[in-house]
């Protein structure tokens, strides 16, 4: 049993960043982080290593909780999280293979190219700047990464490639040096104001913060709160120099595409290619993956993405494959919040862009807990309340139908549509994306 000032549930990026900034702002706080497995076990240690500061949700949905000006401030704060993460890594001596680079999102048919133009216009409208965000033509895109069929790419500057497990483990070490206690192998069995019940005893705390992202559905009473969406990755053996000569990729850019069922890739420090995508997107009843082991069909799908975008890699061995879950709120928009009366708070629902977003969430949650009146606590994602997901089998049917529609849309676009397929719009409408 323990009695502390702050109990944080979940030792991933969100929980650790929150602990870090709370301790920075008030070193006297007694903070306990409770983790079911080990620090970085979930998506924080298994993601694609994209530190982007990007705004990956519907801008207009946030307008219900704030003004256009506050939304643009949120966009700027998100972008600034890249420099903040790198600054902390440098100051705390965290070696996470960080390389500043660009994000390249490739379009390989006319419908994807139209989607790239629309995304550029949308993001510029909400405050991103043309020096950071711009289109390049096919020649310029292929000169950077030689992806077959490329018509052009959207370039996002000011991002970084990281090794995610190194970052989260380094952050865990940093907060422990500051005096934060992390108790691993401790499952939470109940949460109520001022009290956290675990399989190993009870924690009493003035403030209780839930930062469990894709594992939120496994907590008592929260099965329908956030949907645990699966994402998976493969990684090749080290790529020989002659294959790199054919592919290019000398700038270590993080790379993806404009398919509706998109992928995300990086060239690692060791010279491997990592490829990620959704695979089997959702398990019935909000079930969680089997300790990060993807099914054979998902691995085969990822290999096909690797070979399609990087045909020179066809002869390479796949050295490892893994998967994990990310948290998806019903409106597909991230949130952070705190109720001062009950002393309970939360952060998450990042829908796959948590590496940078979790840092801003941690800073915001720290300000909320300490009652600091900063710019962060007035951003439109703070204290947003959304409805829960439907009961089964509706949410399983909805998510799987959405991804089937995405696949059909991608197939139709590949056949030569001039504009994005309406099937993708139907998929988004169906699930509220």
How would you describe this protein?
Strand 1 (2-9), helix 1 (13-25) and strand 2 (31-34) form a beta-alpha-beta unit. The strands form 2 sheets. Strands 3, 4, 5, 6, 11, 12, 13, 14 and 15 form a 9-stranded mixed beta sheet that branches. Strands 1, 2, 7, 8, 9, 10, 16 and 17 form an 8-stranded mixed beta sheet that branches. The model has no long low-confidence stretch (mean pLDDT 96). The protein folds into 2 domains: 1-98 and 163-226 and 331-389, FAD/NAD(P)-binding domain; 99-161 and 227-328, D-Amino Acid Oxidase, Chain A, domain 2 (2-Layer Sandwich). With 433 residues, it is of the alpha/beta class. It is globular, with a radius of gyration of 21 Å. It has helices spanning 13-25, 43-46, 59-62, 68-91, 110-125, 138-144, 164-177, 241-247, 296-309, 354-370, 394-414, 422-431; strands spanning 2-9, 31-34, 50-51, 99-107, 133-137, 152-161, 181-183, 188-192, 195-198, 201-210, 227-236, 254-257, 264-267, 273-277, 318-328, 335-339, 344-348. It is built from 12 helices and 17 strands.
């Amino acid at each position: 049993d323990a009695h502390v000032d702050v109990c944080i549930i979940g030792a991933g990026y969100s929980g650790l960043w929150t602990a870090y900034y709370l301790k920075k702002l008030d070193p006297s706080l007694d903070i306990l982080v409770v983790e079911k497995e080990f620090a970085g076990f979930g998506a924080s240690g298994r993601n694609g290593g994209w530190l982007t500061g990007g705004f990956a949700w519907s801008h207009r949905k946030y307008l219900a909780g704030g003004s256009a000006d506050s939304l643009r401030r949120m966009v700027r704060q998100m972008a600034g999280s890249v420099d903040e993460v790198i600054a902390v890594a440098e100051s705390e001596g965290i070696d996470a293979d960080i390389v500043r680079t660009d994000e390249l999102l490739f379009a390989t048919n006319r419908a994807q190219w139209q989607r790239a133009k629309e995304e550029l216009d949308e993001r510029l409208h909400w405050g991103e700047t043309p020096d950071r965000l711009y289109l390049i033509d096919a020649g310029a895109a292929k000169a950077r990464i030689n992806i077959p069929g490329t018509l052009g790419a959207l370039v996002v500057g000011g991002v970084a490639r990281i090794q995610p497990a190194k970052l989260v483990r380094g952050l865990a070490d940093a907060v422990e040096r500051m005096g934060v206690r992390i108790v691993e192998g401790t499952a939470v069995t109940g949460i109520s104001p001022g009290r956290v019940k675990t399989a190993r005893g009870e924690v009493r705390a003035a403030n209780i913060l839930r930062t469990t992202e894709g594992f939120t559905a496994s907590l008592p009473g929260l099965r329908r709160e956030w949907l645990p969406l699966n994402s998976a990755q493969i990684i090749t053996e080290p790529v020989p120099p002659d294959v790199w000569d054919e592919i290019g990729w000398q700038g270590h850019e993080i790379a993806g595409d404009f398919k509706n069922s998109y992928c995300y890739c990086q060239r690692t420090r060791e010279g491997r290619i990592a490829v990620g995508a959704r695979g089997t997107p959702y398990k019935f009843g909000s079930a969680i993956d089997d300790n990060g082991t993807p099914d054979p069909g998902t691995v085969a799908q990822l290999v096909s993405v690797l070979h399609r975008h990087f045909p020179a890699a066809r002869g390479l061995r796949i050295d490892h494959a893994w998967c994990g879950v990310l948290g998806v709120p019903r409106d597909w928009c991230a949130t952070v919040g705190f109720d001062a009366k009950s002393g309970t708070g939360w952060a998450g629902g990042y829908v796959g862009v948590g590496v940078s977003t979790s840092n801003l969430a941690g800073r915001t949650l720290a300000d909320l807990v300490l009652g600091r009146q900063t710019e962060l606590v007035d951003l439109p994602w703070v204290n947003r309340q959304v409805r829960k997901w439907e009961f089964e089998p509706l949410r399983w049917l909805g998510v799987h139908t959405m991804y089937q529609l995405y696949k059909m849309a991608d197939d139709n676009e590949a056949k030569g549509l001039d504009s994005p397929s309406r099937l993708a719009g139907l998929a988004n409408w169906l699930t509220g994306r």
